[in-house]
Amino acid sequence: MPAPIQASNDRYPGEAGVEVANITKSFGPDEARVTVLNGVSLTIRKGEFVSLIGPSGCGKSTLLKVVAGLSEADGGKVSINGKSVREASREKAIGLVPQSPALLPWRTILDNVSLPISINPNANAGRKLRDPKEILTSFGLGKAIDRYPAQLSGGMQQRAAIARAFVFDPEILLMDEPFSALDEMNRDQQRMGLLDFWQSNQKSVLFVTHSVPEAIILSDRIVLMAAHPGRIAEIIDVDLPRPRNEALYATDAFRDLEGYVRNALRKVMEAAHV
Amino acid sequence: MSSSIAAEAAPKAKTSSPMARMAGDWLPPAVTFVIVAVLWQVVALNNPYVLPTLESVGNSMASDPHMYWANMLVTCQEIVIGAGAGILFGFLLAVAMSELPIIEKAMMPLIVVIMVTPVVAIAPALVVAFGFGMLPKYIVTGLVVFFPMLVNSLAGLRDVDQKALDVFKTLHASRWETFRDLRLPGCMPFVFAGLRIAMPLAVVGAAVAEFVAAGQQAGLGSLVTISAAQADLPVTWASIALLCLLGVVLVSLLALLRKRVLWWSDADVIGR
Ligand SMILES: Nc1ncnc2c1ncn2[C@@H]1O[C@H](COP(=O)(O)OP(=O)(O)O)[C@@H](O)[C@H]1O
Ligand SMILES: [Mg+2]
Questions:
Q1: Residue with CA closest to ligand 1 atom 6
Q2: Helix, strand and coil in chain B, % to nearest 5
Q3: Where would a tag sit more exposed on chain A, N or C end, judged by fewer CB atoms within 10 A?
């Protein structure tokens, strides 16, 4: 992949990226209404990788769904490079990687990854569509393009789902615990695959995870959420040099940060139990 | 391509010679059939008024193949046109219901009322309304297959993978794109389950239609009633055997079609 690899991110301070402003969301009937998101605000700059971490049930998926336009917030505003979520969706600016690969079992891997190009073709004008074959090759699935999802391992399926989200060059990628269904070894392999790919294709990413090392190795910033009601407890900068690789796990800087994030997470969870 | 996939996806059979495997598949049912045939003959030889002997059934078919063929064609016609229309209409109504919930709300109660009314009871009324031609028979045959097709197709269209639907929504897929690329292919396992129920019912429906909406007195079902009234047991049982054959052929054709269309569904089951 002939892409420039930079020590720091390609950030453009002047440009908006994704702005989440004061989002509130609650579920349930009036008398038993539960506030799931309570005034959540955050910014994802262009080309920035942001992870969302927090206890389960704190509203991470709900926030992601609001940003994806799959769920309507009760209050607040999301803008994607200055556009509303609805406009962004119409322009095919949002790439989604769900928790399960959700590939179409009757299509080959190549046809699955080509799907976002054939859907809503009006939005293809003037964008840098990727060649599905090439993107699958760079995800290590070059030999699997003519296979069907059921013939691939769970890890390979999830990689194809990630390729499907990158192929149409969206402005923001939303990933909801994409590796959580995989076993540990597979998960680490897929994580490194995503890290490599992202470092040569720096796109804005909002990445939900419950793994602290995963959040650190991938992210520029980690957004720590607290539960009941869901809110942002802390935003942690990950000032580790890029490009990163597995060797980073063994460094003191990584371990220090991991200790710090785990501690912050523990505090958030203890506070919830009092 | 698809054949190699089917081969890969298929569970690896235990390594035994093909001859032995074939014997293992065919021998037990063959033994059952032989035992039944022997018992049949014993009963038939001792009680000629209960069952005809197998040779008399065979002789009856051999002596007048054109008569059987002509009647079988009539029954086939009822199945192809009547059940075909019932299947198509059931599927299309399911599509309309899944796309426009108001249609389901408006029509489901009426359809349930029609479906709990015994077809056998409606048939004479249809004869009065539509005369002794083929139309009442088409309607009866169609009615019998319509409901399983509707219910199964609707379940299939609803059973869409929610995560895949989320992906379609974020891409701002049109309704048509979502239907064409997600709901329609995704509902096929249910459609085939519906067809698997509908095929034998189509034969039942055609035979019942000929019983109750006799009219032209043609078709294998009519042949059964007429010959039974005359105690002509070889003809009765020959007609029954042909109806049975018709059902077997339909179900086998369906299984072949399913293999071609739905190989991915079976592969899917094995893959997970
Ligand atoms: N559609 C819904 N209806 C009612 N409650 C919901 C719905 N979606 C999520 N919730 C609730 O909102 C809370 C946050 O859920 P979620 O965003 O899935 O959490 P997370 O992804 O952080 O584990 C949970 O308590 C969940 O029960
Ligand atoms: Mg979640």
A1: A27
A2: 85, 0, 15
A3: C
Cα dihedral A182→A186→A187→A193 (10° resolution): -130
Cα separation, B63 vs B85, whole angstroms: 35
What are the residues whose beta carbons fall under 8 Å from the beta carbon of A39, sequence distance 6 or more? A22, A23, A24, A76, A231
Q: Reduced to 3 states, what is the DSSP secondary structure of residue A176?
A: strand
The answer to whether the CB atoms of A104 and B163 lie below 8 A apart is no
Instruction: Identify the CA nearest to A26 among candidates A81, A69, A71, A67.
Output: A71
pLDDT at B181: 97
| Closest CA to ligand 1's atom 7 | A27
**Exposure pattern of B193-229 as b/e (b: 16+ CB <10 Å)?**
bbbbbbbbbbbbbbbbbbbbbbbeebbbbbbbbebee
Q: What is the pLDDT of residue A15?
A: 62
Amino acid (one-letter) located at B174: S
Select from A141, A223, A252, A241 the least CA-distant residue to A189.
A141
Q: In a 3-state reduction of DSSP, which class is residue A75? A: strand
How many Å apart are CA A19 and CA B62, to the nearest integer?
83
pLDDT value for B3: 39
Q: Inform me whether the C-beta atom of residue A115 falls under 8 Å from chain B C-beta atoms.
A: yes
Average pLDDT by consecutive 10-residue portion of chain A (274 residues)? 41 70 93 92 95 95 97 95 95 96 96 97 92 93 94 93 95 95 87 92 94 96 94 96 94 97 94 72
Chain A residues whose CB is inside 8 A of the B1 CB are: 146
What is the predicted pLDDT for the residue at A130? 94
Structure tokens at A45: 């700059």
Element containing residue B188 per DSSP (H, E): helix B184-212
Both tokens assigned to B184? 């329609």
CA atoms in the 13 A half-sphere facing the CB of A161: 30
The yes/no answer to whether this complex scores an ipTM above 0.95 is: no
- Among candidate residues A95, A15, A87, the one with its CA nearest the CA of residue A47: A15
The reply to whether A167 touches chain B by the CB within 8 Å rule is no
Cβ-based contacts of A90 with chain B (< 8 Å): 172
Cα angle B155, B156, B160 (rounded to 5 degrees) comes to 110
Please write the tens of the pLDDT for every residue from B91-118: 999 999 999 999 999 999 999 998 888 8
Cβ neighbours for A132, distance < 8 A, ≥ 6 positions apart:
A110, A113, A114, A117, A145, A163, A167
The pLDDT tens digits of the residues spanning B34-80 come to 999 999 999 999 988 899 999 999 999 999 999 999 999 999 999 99
